[in-house]
Design brief:
heterodimer, A: 254 residues, alpha/beta, Rossmann fold, 2 domains, four-stranded antiparallel beta sheet, 7 helices, 10 strands, B: 490 residues, mainly alpha, MetI-like fold, two-stranded antiparallel ribbon, two-stranded antiparallel sheet, 4 strands
Amino acid sequence: MGVLDIEHVTKVFESENGKIPVLEDVSVSVKEDEFLCLVGPSGCGKSTLLRIVAGLERADSGQILFHGQPQLAPTPRITMIFQLFGLLPWKTSLENVTVALEVLGVKEESAEETARSYLRMVGLEGFENTYPHDLSGGMKQRVGIARALALQPEVLLMDEPFSSLDELTAKNLRSLVMDLRRRSELSTNTFIMVSHNVEEAVFMADRVAVMSPRPGKIIGDVKVDIPRPRLSYLRDPIYFKYVDEVVSVLERGK
Amino acid sequence: MILIPIIDLLQSIPILGYFPVIILFFISLFHGGEMGIELSAILLLFTSMAWAIFFGVIGAVKGIPVNITEAAQGFGVTGLKYTRHVILPAIVPALVSGCTLAWCDGWFFMIAAEYVVYLGATYSVPGLGSYLAKAAYVYNDLNLSVVLLILITAIVLYLNFLTWHPLLEKAATGTYKPVLRIGLSGLGKLAVITPRIAPRWLRIGDRVHRPKSIVLASKWLKRYTSQEKVIALILSLIGIFVVMYFEVGKIPSADVFEQAFKDPEFLNLPMYVALTMGRLTVAYVISLGVALGMGVLAAEHKRFAAVFYPIYDIGQAVPILALFPIFFVYFSRLFGGRIGLETTAILVLVLDMIWYMFLNVVGAVKSIPSEIREVGRLLGFKGLGRIIHIVIPAILPAIVTGSILSWGTGWNTIIFAEYMPYEMEVYGGQPLELPGLGAYLDKTGYLPPPKGNPVRLLFLLGVVATIVLAMEGLVWRRLLKKFEKYRVEI
């Protein structure tokens, strides 16, 4: 049993043109301290799976177990980073983080203190009072990361967190997430990321679960055994070996 | 270049405000009589209808995406071919929805246009509007008025759902922009007000739909600086004046100028402005509150939508000015003439303003991006906290544009609502009026001299236009700019 067990999850969307099966009997388990990446072609239901894990959507059948208990509704122990950042445009960087803490019942002053320290951690010192409108995409995602981590979750879900950023910014943010993960003071140690970028998945993850086109099934589970930090392995044949392996599973699923 | 600012400006003056000018023009052209009134009625209906179509078509042509025009150029589609294959298909939806809007607008003014008291004499052209007006004012018959109102509403609804709605549906396929829809309930699967509840993977990358009115209003506000508008205002006033000078000849004599500002009531003008603004403000606050509550509930809960959408469909189909005589007969029996008129005026204003707010609120709540909703749920916002932190800030821009539209239509209605020119026996054969800018404007327009005075009429119209433009520049434009940041970028 892992921290999170996804067991036989099936999901069907109803649309005007009838029923569309999105997920079909998906089972995957994430252990403590593990970084799992779900990779698959677009429309394969990987984002939907992540939302079911977060408690934002219900599975039609099957279940999610969090420490062995069914996980049905959003909980601060599992937070999420969004593709389009998910910041509230009417709140400053600081307010976006504090409001998340205040909803949990943290007092205003200590919430603000915590928020400031997390914004500093993601390199946003000096931008506390800036509105999302005036931040670059990369900076917005930094706020998103700070907000998610400030809640001190056990599991962090990431929904294509870098795919709406330019490559250079994405690279910096990937390294930032990896650096943060190594920090011992963070209670967050289990990560699930959704991506369609194989290189990104191999660079970041301990395990890459490969999904088939719709309806999504798990068709491969590749354990990435590259020492960390991996930045120095980006030109190494071992890195390309794993990339090729994931790509070939993807190809087979077509 | 010249046409658009002038039309913009004319649009910001309430149509009913320049109705007296039009009547004055046609009556002197035909030396009085029914022909003049009939033509004025048609011209009034035309001016009320033309804007929606005009702006719709302009917006559609401007809204053709650059990649389409570039592709057309690249494939050598130019000239007539370009018009046929690119421009025409692009404007058809706008044309249809513009015509629909125009048609609805037309019903609104029908009552005012068909039954006119001018220079102490009553002119009416036979029609449903004048029949309803007579039923209420002359016969003072509540039952007959209500029956007529139901008949008119039924006709409007019938035409909306059986003629316009299917046409809109047809036109809506293959457009670049969402098309406005007239009904929220019943038939139809247009994607404007209710972006289809699409599966998540279909929604990503999908642009957020906003009701067209919002897009139009905010574009319109951005187009000109206030200086340009003031210049256009002065130019068009001079224009109207020149037309009158040549057509009516006798008007701008020194006498008329002198009389214009000698009227004893003229000194009350500041008070009149305050009273009229007060009525509008009261009605606005009520509409805002009610529409906000109804709109949020309807957009978020299917059960409320099932109740509120049909109410909206019927409510916005009732020609507001046609409600006026009926409410008046009812309330004047209840409270007496003066208070009855005051109550009627405010109630009619509320019923007039509320639907613009409601439509904008519903549209905006519906188009809150799914990511923002998910963030709200993930962070644990519930109930009132969710409304305050997520829903209200997200719809603030729409509230501002709804407010602009509400005030615009409110000005039209107040000019009609403050003055009852009909000499009803029950009130001692005296016209009833509420002290206010609208009533003063009506009297200046419709009564014989020295009360009626074309120069003063133009002046008062200028006052109205100034107030409208000042509110726009000082209040709405600033708010819109402030809330611009709140728009979720997708």
